[in-house]
Amino acid sequence: MSLTTSSVLSLESRVLGAWRGKSAGGTLGLPAEGRTERQHYQFYDPIPTVVPPNDDLELQLVWLDKMENHTGPVTIETLVDAWRAHIHYMWDEYGRARWNIRRGVPAALNGIYENPFASGMGSPIRSEVWAIIAAGNPDLAERYAKLDSMIDHGSEGVAGEVFLTVLQALVLGGADLPEAMEAAWARVDPATETRRALDLVFASHKRGMDCWATHGLLLKEYPNDNFTHAPLNVALTLWAILFGNGDFEATILLGVNGGYDTDCTAASAGAVLGFLHGAERLPEKWIAPLGDAVAVGPGIIGIRAPRTLQELTERSLALHARVRDLTPVLPEKSIQIPALQSLPGSIMMIAGNAEVPWANGELPTEVKATGRATWQWRPGHDINKPFKVIALAREGCRLWINGQQVIECPAGVPYVPATHRSAQDSHALFVPDQESYEVRLELNSANPWQEATVLLADNALHIAPWDGTALPHRAELPPA
User: Fold this and answer.
1) For position 7, what pLDDT does the model report?
2) Do 324 and 345 belong to one domain?
3) Does residue 46 have a cis bond before it (omega within 30 degrees)?
4) Which residues pair with 41 in a beta bridge?
5) Which residues contact 142 (CB under 8 A, 6 or more apart)?
6) What's the pLDDT at 47?
7) What values do phi and psi take at 443, rounded to 5?
8) How many beta carbons lie within 10 A of that of residue 126, not counting itself?
9) Cβ atoms 81, 468 nearer than 8 A
10) CB–CB of 199/222 below 8 Å?
């Protein structure tokens, strides 16, 4: 296959090709998601009969539904309103975004406030809908990408989504793949780890370094405990595209066999090749097993989802035709960061002789420096319901509830403070049957610079307040 976009391809063919390519890559990569060792896939395993639900596509269906019913300035508040109403997943940055929205964090700060997953892949994977709206317009594509990513990410997530959105918008607009990659790379913030990881892949490819030698160097230079870390995975996406050399099958197989967030890397790379080649030139062996249906999981609520990829294509193109009605407006940079104690759900911890504010997540420096803390837990209306308690520290920790030790987290565990995938021995289930409990934490070392987190999650693994505050906009998900 060629690296050049065919001039005879219709816009519809390219858009349908992108959605099919994204579905193929995502479906291939789902079974391998989170495996960090090299994989050896040659085809779907298991072979699908339909495309399974995948947040890579689902979140974009929310934006599609929102934009279809919107005219005028598209602000961060526009997208946060849609998130609040329709995106009810608790995973990583999604759950942290919902927690911040529920507590009233300013929308423009939502992605960076108390968010350990600000550098995750949750926003780079939702680039295609913006690329379609902004086809051929890199300035517009960049603004949409930034606006979207700020909901649940900081500079690294923003950098990843900017790179992929601009790349895809340029390819859809008729640019050759090398030209589009170069232009998208130039818009990535040079101060980010994402830019440095992309630089490594570009430089290695230009020097003629072997595909897997480049892969090994990338993992050596940019390792991370979190398999969804955006700088590494966006660079792996570029690696798959470069070394796939325009061949759809080779590209999505590299996206999966490189490991880490495999459904995301293969899906984004597959979408790029779909934009480039169009639906007609994608290999039938990869497209036929999937059918045309669009599946939506239980965390996406209350939208008019397309039933097929063909319908998704038609509705995406209708948005592109309305591009002048949808103007992205980035927020001001001077928004004041709220004090932690001013937000509902915050409590006071006792660290030594001091009271320090805290809510959920990374522990205050004062706690890390003293190596211990105590606080009160009031389950409120959720008494007699199961909670998940997480105590995670790179150097190890122990946690007691009313004098009963419930967690002993060993030193050296992977540091991924997620409600649904924290390290073994860092979490416990607890069913409260009284109105108040004393929680005591002891860290294995008194080090103010250590990584240490405590989280409380409800039965659906959403972050829950320690003081029983009834926060608004509780997620509508079935019990875990």
Assistant:
1) 61
2) no
3) yes
4) none
5) 162, 165, 166, 187
6) 95
7) -85, 150
8) 26
9) no
10) no
The pLDDT of residue 332 is 86
* Residue 211 resides in a domain: yes
Burial call 272-286: b when 16+ CB within 10 Å, e when fewer:
bbbbbbbbebbeeeb
**Which amino acid does the sequence have at 333?**
K
Beta-bridged to residue 79, according to DSSP, are none
Residues 217 and 145 in one domain: yes
| Per-residue model confidence (pLDDT) at position 67 | 96
Residues of the chain where predicted confidence (pLDDT) is lower than 70: 1-2, 5-7, 478-480
Contact 2, 251 (CB under 8 A): no
Report how far residue 370's alpha carbon sits from residue 442's, in angstroms, rounded to the nearest whole number. 9
281 lies in the same domain as 208:
yes
Q: Helix or strand or coil: residue 313?
A: helix
Length of the chain: 480
Give, in order, the Cα–Cα distances in Å from 322 to each of 59, 131, 152, 439, 465: 20, 14, 26, 54, 42
What's the pLDDT at 4?
73
Bridge partners (DSSP) listed for residue 111: none
Q: How far is Cα 274 from Cα 257, in angstroms, rounded to an integer?
A: 19
Same-domain check for residues 113 and 203: yes
Q: How far apart are CA 117 and CA 126, in angstroms?
A: 16
Same domain, 75 and 192: yes
Residue with tokens 């508040």: 77
H or E segment and range at residue 46: none
Report the DSSP pairing between strands 387-393 and 452-457.
antiparallel
pTM: 0.96
Q: What's at 161, amino acid-wise?
A: E
Taking the C-alpha atoms of residue 1 and residue 458, their distance in angstroms, rounded to an integer, is: 50
Q: For position 333, what pLDDT does the model report?
A: 82
Q: Is 155 helix (H, G, I), strand (E, B) or coil?
A: helix
Intra-chain end-to-end CA distance of the chain, in Å: 45
Strand partners, 375: 439
Could you tell me whether strands 372-377 and 361-362 are parallel, antiparallel, or unpaired per DSSP bridges? unpaired
- Predicted confidence at residue 9, as pLDDT, reads 86
In a domain, 333, yes or no: no
What is the rounded distance in angstroms from the CA atom of residue 218 to the CA atom of residue 204?
10
In the three-class reduction of DSSP (H, G, I as helix; E, B as strand; rest coil), residue 350 is classed as strand
pLDDT at 477: 72
* Spatial separation of the C-alpha atoms in residues 270 and 138, rounded to whole Å: 20
Q: Which of 146, 179, 184 is nearest to 166 (CA)?
A: 184
- Tokens of residue 311, six digits: 């319908």
Specify the pLDDT at position 107: 95
Q: Rounded to an integer, what distance in angstroms lies between the CA atom of residue 111 and that of residue 147? A: 11
Give the pLDDT of residue 53.
Answer: 93
Cα 7 to Cα 378: distance, rounded to the nearest angstrom: 64
Residues 135, 186 within the same domain: yes
